Amino acid sequence: GLDPAGPYFEGTPPEVRLDPSDANFVDVIHSNAAHFPAVGLGMYNTTGHLDFYPNGGSVMPGCTDLIPEMKQSDFEVMIADATVIGVCHHSRSHELYFESILYPTGYLGYPCETYKSFEAGDCFPCPQEGCPMMGHYADRFPDKLKRVSQKYFLNTAADPPFATWRQKLLIKLSGVKKMKGDINLIFHDTEGNTKEYEMASGVLSQDQVYTKYLDVEINPKNTKKIEFLWSKTIFNLLWARLGAETVNITHGED
């Protein structure tokens, strides 16, 4: 199910919409779900054996078309012209499925109650039974028929191939007591590609442990090195003494 239709189907009986009884295995990607207060072309409720909600399931990064907030009556008037709203978000579902064939490890879905909890890191890493892969390889998940009504969340990149690998990064600083500036991480892969992410910013202290969840666009299996980039706000000779006492990186699967 690639972003199953929401208008006139959301909340209806299983007989008239997609549901787990329609096939031996029903695999669903929600990319433009109508989730209050936004109006979308897709369905938000779970409708399959495995229901994936990339980026929360309603708004896709990299899409510039707007999803307006409106009354149901307004939406009924506009739904005849689907080009007005949500087209990029709605069609991203099949693009994600296509890319998942080429990147079989880049779409790990984490079981979680809400997207907010997922963003906060409450559903990381994967539970003991593991996590399914969104898209083409979802049927390889051993418990694929036992998780009906469970939502699976993940984040994707804004540009093709959209794949990301969620990692939890923990850094404890050493050197100086306090320093104002930024810490960025630059991931390098074996093919020369790089991606930079902000780890911490502001007043940095060696007494604090900095933790962040990053959805990295560099495959951990191809990661050659991770560069720590210190950027000071005000020039200070003490900055040269600032370093990392401990660094810990946890991948989503292990």
UniProtKB/TrEMBL annotation:
A Pfam family recorded for this sequence: Lipase
InterPro entries cross-referenced by the UniProt entry: AB_hydrolase_fold, Lipase, PLAT/LH2_dom_sf, TAG_lipase
Record's keyword terms, sorted: Secreted
Protein's cellular compartments: Secreted
Domain Lipase: 1-162
Gene Ontology molecular functions: lipoprotein lipase activity
Cellular component per GO, a single term: extracellular region
TM ranges: none
PANTHER family, alphabetized: LIPASE, PANCREATIC LIPASE-RELATED PROTEIN 3
Similarity comment: family membership: Belongs to the AB hydrolase superfamily. Lipase family.
Name of the protein in question: Pancreatic lipase-related protein 2
Organism: Cariama cristata
Highest classification ranks of the organism: Eukaryota, Metazoa, Chordata, Craniata, Vertebrata
